[in-house]
Amino acid sequence: MHGRQETGVFIWVFNEKVHITQGDLEGKAVIVSWVTQKARGSNTVLYWKEHSCEMLKAHGKSKTYKFYNYTSGHIHHCTIKNLEYDTKYYYMVGVGQTERKFWFLTPPKPGPDVPYTFGVNGDLGQSFDLTLTHYENNPLKGQTILFVGDFSYADTYPNHDNNRWDTWGRFVERSTAYQPWIWTVGNHELDFAPQIGETKPFKPFKHRYCTPHRSSGSTEPFWYSIKRGPAYIIVLASYSAYCKYTPQYMWLEQEFPKVNRTETPWLIVLMHSPWYNSYDYHYMEGETMRVMYEPWFVKNKVDAVFAGHVHGYERSERISNFAYNVVNGICRPVKDLSAPVYITIGDGGNLEGLSTMTHAYYGWHRNQDGYAVDGDTMWLFNRIWNPIDDSSDDDS
Predict the structure, then answer these.
(1) Digit-coded pLDDT (tens) for 356-393
(2) In angstroms, rounded to a whole number, what is the distance separating the alpha carbons of residues 357 and 380?
(3) Is 151 a residue whose pLDDT tops 80?
(4) Is the pLDDT of residue 12 over 60?
């Protein structure tokens, strides 16, 4: 342990709540973030390739924020650039103080035949750690988590108790420090509370969590895209303006033509509020966004859409609902083999799938059953390279 003396008081500089995410569009950069509570500490990250003696340095920045009667620690963000694909790196934060060492694996170069395993979860909260334990113990071993929103649920406590953001960061560090989590904002990240003078939406999220939005031409960290292995992943913001002529709309309109399905055959979209939902809770909350964007999803043959918000599990067939039968007034989803499969995973569940050129295996596991028991499985067939009917064999 290290510390330093300031005006007669010995201050421990402890670095915690470490988390990483992808730092660019292509997968050759990583954003490392961590918090020091009592003193600023070092902004430097040391990193090196496995089996290498060459120690490299990257320098970041730190900031703090206030929310009502809460003041954050010093939140550090440092981007490590020009990494090699498919390589194990070690990295160290707290240089010169309380040094802590972690590691991560960079993805393979984007391409159609590079298998890659994603985990998916959302609405995690911090009531218990069964979901993370379940994910860690799964033999498929996910390499990156696609997180579909709702982090700490601090807004459900008096005055949006931002200490809950700190406890959540500690709670997930055992995973977030070692593999990238791709962040999606949910309604519990809004933290809009004018009754206590807090009128800037997403303030805690924007200070604590970075996304590589600028590398995909986005103007805000809430919507962006990345390539990772064989997948092109588009992250959308359910609680930012998305109608015509808004920044998110104009960005997405320009984003779809950039997707090269020869390079990244899998096109995946993340959002928080589901467009298709048969539960009573949150029923049709995503409807206006669906009306705006669903034709684009079908035209561009999106393979799968993952959402949270509803604290349950549900998946659709390949359906769409933007072509109406004017003659008899029918207005309900119809089978559409160019449409995505919609999966709601807001129960803190996970997804592990082997991605190849034409097939992806999807499995959902209930916490109650143990990680080796599949609650639901299916094979997804790629909409570009193998667009056959992958509907279930039964009517369930």
Answers:
(1) 377 787 888 887 777 778 888 888 888 887 788 888 76
(2) 11
(3) yes
(4) no
Cα separation, 47 vs 325, in Å, equals 59
What is the three-class DSSP state of 252? Answer: helix
Q: Give the strand pairing for 313-315 and 100-105.
A: unpaired
Question: Which amino acids are annotated catalytic?
Answer: 282
Helices (H), 221-355: 247-255, 287-299
Does residue 274 have a pLDDT over 70?
Answer: yes
Under 8 Å between Cβ of 308 and 326 = no
- Among 234, 165, 253, 247, smallest CA distance to 202 is for 165
Asked whether the beta carbons of 211 and 25 are under 8 A apart, the reply is no
DSSP state letter for 82: S
Cβ–Cβ under 8 Å, residues 343 and 315? yes
355 DSSP assignment: B
The tokens for 198 are 């807090």
Which 3 state secondary structure label does DSSP give 9?
strand
Tracing tokens 């709309």 back to the chain, one arrives at 249
Q: Measuring CA to CA, which residue among 175, 161, 169, 191 is closest to residue 131?
A: 175
User: What phi and psi, each to the nearest 5 degrees, are found at residue 178?
Assistant: -115, -20
Above 50 in pLDDT, residue 352?
no
